[in-house]
Protein 1
Amino acid sequence: MIEVRDLHKHFGNVKAVDGVSFIAHDGEITGLLGPNGAGKTTTLRMLYTLMRPDQGQVLVDTIDVARDAEAVRRRLGVLPDARGLYKRLTARENIEYFARLQGMDEARIRARRDQLIAALDMADIANRRTEGFSQGQRVKTAIARALVHDPNNVILDEPTNGLDVMATRSMRRFMRQLKEEGRCVLFSSHIMQEVAALCDRIVVIAHGRVVADESPEALRAQTGEANLEDAFVKIIGSEEGLAA
Ligand SMILES: Nc1ncnc2c1ncn2[C@@H]1O[C@H](COP(=O)(O)OP(=O)(O)OP(=O)(O)O)[C@@H](O)[C@H]1O
């Protein structure tokens, strides 16, 4: 479970995150939806300990990030916005390297690596150097690497960005599988169809603030709009920066 309480972060005069609070539960997919520049990536960076908030608290499985960032990192699998693979290493080696950094023993590394390569359908690319990988191949490798230590909480920054229709569908299937396994799945998107298709809970962010935090059904009911897309536009107050 990931709990965010009154997070703030500014860059100069820009209030990127301006009092964000929400809870992402285990066994659910929570979507952070907002237009470009809304503060999604900045929020996620503070959650996965890359950036320190100006104010506010983040708890992962009730552990305070400010108190024990190491323990939090062990419980998190992160697909960052910059996928950052080692291009001289093969996909398999990228996964193994991260597993070793997590302190896993060799038998467990092998088992988990093979499990993820199968689950993400990446047997055909596993032994290729990641240099020259397509967008989809890079995302798969980065996700396998992020999940190698079997974390309870999974944070994905725009996981389907740049993926084609087939790769997007397989990513959604994989995210549902993570949910079925009881994990807490939190992802960001500016694509309404994506959150509508996947989420148990939608946290809508605009101008660094949470403007709605509901199930897709409640969001429709609250805005009186049968169509989720119309509901989003109504909540955000403009269509700017949102993709259908
Ligand atoms: N390192 C930084 N330095 C200066 N400004 C920043 C920095 N990071 C983010 N910002 C600003 O903070 C605001 C929120 O940015 P953020 O990347 O969190 O938005 P986002 O919701 O993830 O947008 P997108 O959908 O375009 O990725 C923007 O105005 C952005 O320009």
Note: The radius of gyration is 18 Å.
Protein 2
Amino acid sequence: MSARDAVGGLAVAMGTLGRRQRLENSEFTVRVYPGALAEGTIYCPISARKSTTAAEAIERVLERLRLDRARCYVLAEVKEFGGEEWILNPGDCPVQRMLLWPRGALEPTTSSTTTSDYRFLLRQKNLDGSIHYGGSLQMWLRVTEERRRMVERGLLPPPRPVAHGDHADLCGLPQLSERALLDNLRARFHQEKIYTYVGSILIVINPFRFLPIYNPKYVKMYDDHSLGDLEPHIYAVADVAYHAMLQRQSNQCIVISGESGSGKTQSTNFLIHHLTALSQKGFASGNQKQVRLPHVNEAPGPRNLSAELARGGSG
Ligand SMILES: Nc1ncnc2c1ncn2[C@@H]1O[C@H](COP(=O)(O)OP(=O)(O)OP(=O)(O)O)[C@@H](O)[C@H]1O
């Protein structure tokens, strides 16, 4: 699917500015379903930009629905009827999440029902930090009931099957298609799993924010394991190369490839970080093999998956 398709029906600003700038400046309509928090309101549409945070979006919803501000609220993203809810951090940007949804989920609707289960729910947070789920499932059932009846009568197409399962190695996918690959990567990305194997190749999707997966605990965890033993990680690649160097007594090479901004330099830093840690450990135990810094292949990569997913990928 092209980038244009992915944002079809959403982007309102057209002009001579570059596509990226247009996206940054565009106003999007985010539908927030308050459920039982505002009986009688199916959804509250608010306008937001790509940079609008969840906290700002909640503020707009509270203002429009005149909800009790003494309470604490969060936005939850759902992609499947009755499926898991992903709570957005206050600094997360709902529009950026929406841009990862398939095209059908973004199309404007004319009735009170929607053609997709992708949506944002407004949730109330309890004092202990847990989420208050009271009643909103019933509201959601009511909202989607009409749509379900129309599907049964053949007036609407049935929802597309959602790819279930989470494959840490794309070679393990039961069905090999671009959509299945991107769905799997997208599902993992939403769980903050930015690394995925394709056999011995590691795909990295740039999260553009720091994830706490590079601390000494992870360095230790990924020491001396075969590829695939643990959750995919850049440290696992460094570890395999380092131990292959020791065992085979031969040079090893790691090729890092991707488009500009995809994270090659950052990945190189993580590799060096892990190789240095392993090297220091080896030195301390009398193993004095020298680790030469990897050379980064600056050739254009096959595809920039981060950008692809951000554009709506396979939608
Ligand atoms: N693993 C990561 N975790 C968090 N942020 C990341 C990660 N990888 C990349 N980034 C973010 O993406 C930005 C761009 O990454 P980076 O500079 O590594 O790209 P690059 O592929 O080397 O780009 P170029 O080819 O233009 O030099 C970084 O400044 C960083 O903010």
Note: The domain at 170-310 is CATH 3.40.850.10 (Kinesin).
Protein 3
Amino acid sequence: MRKQIAAANWKMNCTYQQGEDLLDNILGANIALADHRQVVFAVPFPYLIMANSEVADEPNYFIAAQNCYNKKSGAYTGEVSAEMLHSIGIKYCVLGHSERREYFQESNKMLAEKIDICLEYGITPIFCCGEPLSIREAGTQNGYVETQLKESLFHLADSVISKIVIAYEPIWAIGTGKTASSDQAQEMHAHLRSVLAKQYGPLLANNISILYGGSVKANNAVELFARPDVDGGLVGGASLNAEEFIAIIKALK
Ligand SMILES: O=C(CO)COP(=O)(O)O
């Protein structure tokens, strides 16, 4: 079975102490994860080392960075490299979140570079894609998201593509409380998988986890995650509440 993943994206939230308490509360629930299930916490940079040591003895729990730079090293004041993340044992990195694309002008091409560097350092990218409301209203979301995939991922060899996790996050559903219906999510996830299958063949496409993100909550996770092409979620707001996120972890297939 494909990996089913509950990923928390804390964004720019929590003090160090709050973050530590949140992790303690979630890990304290002692949810044992079957081998096809994983939990990932994407925490702010200053908390990576603390968070990584919290999950060190917890099988199938991992820590992610929320971003890294598209250059390997050098005079880029304030940036964080994939090599730095690797050097502290980080295994995942969220890339191309719509907030990065919007506020920091991250392009598909720049994201392709970030993906290559992460893979070089053995870091699994959680590649985010998703359309804005205007595109959804025009009905052209399939082509829009397909282009994001093509321009950032399709240079990857067959041997590497299965190392990517994809997160489909329709922008109109992020932080708005307006979740895509499970039908809308399934439809897009199936489309993305067919686009991947066209490029890489059905076998590889079937192995790639595609997470849904956008107002995932305890009360809609079961229905969303039950859909055949929805392999878990990338969760913002609800991941900041231990009880909510625990319920979301338990909703994994
Ligand atoms: O952007 C998201 C996760 O990366 C989704 O955020 P919300 O769950 O707060 O809508």
Note: Residues 4-250 form a domain with the TIM Barrel fold (CATH 3.20.20.70).
Protein 4
Amino acid sequence: MSADKVPDTPVEIVSDLLTKARNIAATCENVPEELSSLLQKALDMTRGLDDYLGKMSARESEPLAELYRKTVTHDWDQVHKDGKTMFRLPKECITGHVEGQTLKMLVHLSRAKRVLEIGMFTGYGALSMAEGLPEDGRLVACELEPYLKEFAQPVFDKSPHGKKIVVKTGSAMDTLKELAAAGEQFDMVFIDADKTNYINYYNFILDSNLLRLHGFLCVDNSLYKAKVYLKDTADDNGLALREFNQVVADDPRVEQVIVPLRDGLSLIRRASPASECSRLKGKITDDEVFRGVRGCSILDRMRLDGKVAYVTGAGQGIGRAFAHALGEAGAKVAVVDLDQERAQQVAEELRLKGITSTALKADISEPDDVQRMIDGIVSKWGGVHIACNNAGVNMNSASEDTSLEEWDRTFSVNLRGTFLCCQAAGRVMLKQGYGKIINTASMASLIVPHPQKQLSYNTSKAGVVKLTQTLGTEWIDRGVRVNCISPGIVDTPLIHSESLRPLVQRWLSDIPAGRLAQVTDLQAAVVYLASDASDYMTGHNLVIEGGQSLW
Ligand SMILES: C[S@@+](CC[C@H](N)C(=O)[O-])C[C@H]1O[C@@H](n2cnc3c(N)ncnc32)[C@H](O)[C@@H]1O
């Protein structure tokens, strides 16, 4: 702690008291050596703690460091004397490095997308949390003093995360009412403004549903310099926080814990819908729609944790995007491709993202390769739950010139290969009594895309749809669902080649969406079809083509 810093947290205050006690002991005669040494040891322990936490926590970004420097060197007394702020703002208000990183970590871990801060000060906490938000995340910061918005904004503007922050100046309670009236909801709320109003903010946030059902609150200063539990507390803020903590502890709507970080940080989460039910008996329909199927929200129902998946043709393009999507949703993924090196590269990408993966080489038109692929996955991971049969080839020729070779090669990969994979994976899945098969068909199964000529491709993909419908109805009563995805024209590097460029213009005029499909446009569909959320769907051809087949 620097010499001019006012002790502000329980640890800093203990440290200050110990320093005083040690100094007194040093001036007294007859103080036992052991007492001095114990005082010194206690002092070293308390003094060193915050420093150590700072050193061992992730480093702050340069904009955060600038905000900190700018805040602690600013003459807040003068600003107040000049009438620029309504209140005299102590620089100790700032959350600072360790708390900032803690808030950022909480945003990350909770995957919050919308955060509300009540009491922004110079924006250190706001920017820390914004750094943890995804690119489309948003943080609304309430601040009474307009001067502080002007102070923080130039630094926000230097950070790539500053654009996620919207500052609302004025009384926080007025802003909360405005947000609630606009139907806004937040995943996380950080309360750090006037202490005597904490209880009002808390009640308003819960009563007006500003905090979404599975959201949580962080409340700063909940230990308030230890005054919340010291008997002789007389100051308003200490008493307000003591009452606040008690109200939260007695509130059946929430679960909470106080983390003794700096001046105390309460983490409060809205309890499960089930506990809200008993309180709201009669006012709600307490069913699976309200509670979620098996208690899971719709997004959780699309998680694939613990599932084993494979994707053929996963070395590039759509297959690679499918492999990433299934892995991101929680599945272990076998990346299968004819090209071993590409498969390995994609498997490595997945591992870098923390996804369990393996690379396999297989030619799906060869029964032995397909069987080896399935056996390998089963022996490595104990089963196959998601079979993504995506590999395919596309050759072009006028129908009168289509060679038998082209026809056979197309059918042997696109239809025979898909059949071999469905059969080999299906046998395992039927034994398990569970499985999700997702075949890649094509919009060409519905319409005849033009002007390119691709008889064998179109016909083989129509076959994939019929294969899917037949298996999907034959196996569903034994727990195996079979569906397919029909992408429209997908934007791949090949499409930008000199020879295809004129065709792209033609295609674009045929697509109501006005653009080609990106592989990322197909990712949610594969996760949905792989998840339990789509259990009632089988034999379906899910067409994703920007409306092209409808024109
Ligand atoms: C402890 S500081 C906030 C620190 C900040 N969260 C950070 O990360 O550095 C409290 C802030 O709340 C603001 N404040 C106090 N009363 C308020 C109110 N009624 N409405 C909005 N803001 C208020 C103060 O102006 C001050 O800037």
Note: The mean pLDDT is 95.
